[in-house]
Amino acid sequence: MDACVVCTSAEEMDRAVAARAPSLALGGDAVALAARAPRRLTLLAVAGDPSVLKGKLDAVLDFEIALGPDPASAFRSTLAKLEGTGVHQ
Fold first, then answer.
1. β-strands 59-60, 42-45: how paired?
2. SS3 assignment, position 6
3. 42 within domain boundaries
4. Lowest CB count within 10 Å: 11, 14, 23, 65, which one?
5. End-to-end CA distance of the chain
6. Lowest mean pLDDT: which of 53-57, 67-71, 78-82?
7. How many CB atoms are closer than 10 A to CB 30?
8. Domain range spanning residue 39?
9. Residue 59 is inside which H or E element, if any?
């Protein structure tokens, strides 16, 4: 598992990239930050609409799933609902 550095500004992202962070969790305007990120990084949005972020980041956190009573079951259920939609691919 890689360390993931949270970045909410271009300056923070520049520092994380200079420190060779392998993964970035993008807050704030995740789309704008993702556009500036080098291709070699894994990009995660702290929040956002998956349909807007699709193709720009590798993943989006879903706090509703994470904070629920059974996150693993909720995650599997969400994947089943998305099957065939292309959103999670």
1. parallel
2. strand
3. yes
4. 11
5. 21
6. 78-82
7. 25
8. 4-82
9. strand 59-60
Residue 87 falls within a domain, yes or no? no
Mean pLDDT score, 11-32: 93
The residue type of 48 is: G
Range 10-27 average pLDDT: 94
Tokens of 3: 């360390």
In terms of pTM, does the model score above 0.90? no
- Candidates 75, 85, 87, 25; CA nearest to 51 is 87
Mean pLDDT along residues 24-45: 92
Q: Quote the CA–CA distance of 21 and 52 in Å, as a whole number.
A: 25
Give a yes or no: residue 89 inside a domain.
no
Task: Report the 10 Å Cβ neighbour count for 82.
Answer: 13
**Assigned domain for 8 exists:** yes
In angstroms, rounded to a whole number, what is the distance separating the alpha carbons of residues 31 and 36? 9
